[in-house]
Specification:
- This is ABC transporter substrate-binding protein.
- It comes from Mycolicibacterium arenosum.
- Pfam families: NMT1.
- By secondary structure, this protein is an alpha/beta fold.
- It has 2 domains: 130 residues, Periplasmic binding protein-like II (D-Maltodextrin-Binding Protein, domain 2); 192 residues, 3-Layer(aba) Sandwich (D-Maltodextrin-Binding Protein, domain 2), CATH 3.40.190.
- It is 36% helix and 15% strand.
- It is built from 13 helices and 11 strands.
- Strands 1-8-7-9-6-10 form a 6-stranded mixed beta sheet. It has a 3-stranded antiparallel beta sheet with strand order 4-11-5. The chain has a two-stranded parallel ribbon with strand order 2-3.
- Helix 6 packs across helix 9.
- The longest helix is centred in the C-terminal third of the chain and has 28 residues.
- The protein is globular.
Length: 364
Amino acid sequence: MTAITTESETNLVRPQHMNRPMGVLTALVTVGAMLAGATGCAAGLGGPASSRAARDGVIRFTFAPDPIWDYMHDEGIVDEFERDTGISIETSATWDEFGLFAGGHADIISSASFEVPGLEEQTERETVVIGRYNTERSRIMVRADDPAASVADLAGKKIGVFTTVSGTLVWSALVKQMHDLDLTGGQDFDLVVADIQNLSGLLARNEIDACICYPDLSVNELRAGSVRPLYDGKSSADLFAELNAPGHDGPMGNVFVARKDWAEAHPTEVSAFLDLWDRGLTEWRAHRDEIIERYPQHFAVATPEDVDFIKSYVDDHDWVVDDVRFDRKWADDEASIFDLMRRTHVIEGDVADPRFLPAERADS
């Protein structure tokens, strides 16, 4: 029988949020913003969270450090939005979005879509998904000289993960669906929990046999050709769509989640918030290389060679969606990740789907 190994046995370092105990029913809860793959502080999300109660004409937005938001802030787009709409945005940057949400200090945060039920359970607040942002982009990688063609060839080997929940849950469901193997149960694989930014390096150094890694945190090894992704480089979102929801772009690594009561009482603010983020997505498409160059820390790159590599990579594998709004069909397809996770026993059968709030563009 294999087991889940931690840094106490391997001298590896876990992310701080992994120190919180999590049971089966709360396994969907992690810091969703970790999927942004960034470090450091954001220029446009400074200051402590608002301690005021919700009020009209104000959006209390808590978000992890993010390059598109920084760009909109630095280019004056957020200021322009506030002048044109009369709506102010009180922002704070934190990796602990869930904590501020639980404390009632945020109206909108980000989370992976598959973490929303856990968010509700932990915070005891009803939520609604109001917008989408980026897809779950992790890949399963092996060393370049490893002959493995799929996860089925890795049975019994060490697989590095940054958490046994979050995106690992999606891969667990996919591995069960594709290969009838149990990724996280300690039977078929030896999971090694390590710091998210060290995984591809550990793989290249032969300390683990594979990893669930983010491409933007694996630039050095990918550029050097020491590691390669399985499944033709497809992410968990790519494979999920291919197998379960053709044409879909999820599951989402980040959606925008609001308190249900706040969203129902503030439709104008919700619509304006989505308009602002549609502007942000437009700016990303128009100035993507410039944004990567200006904020390389958000992509875990520093050298010109790594910056050029991630720009080229994102050209072919952009995980940012084209439109923040979604329709009912998209919501139903996104919710089907829960059908898969229940069917493969990755989550309990009584875990409910998130609530989604489809919306049309104001000018449609």
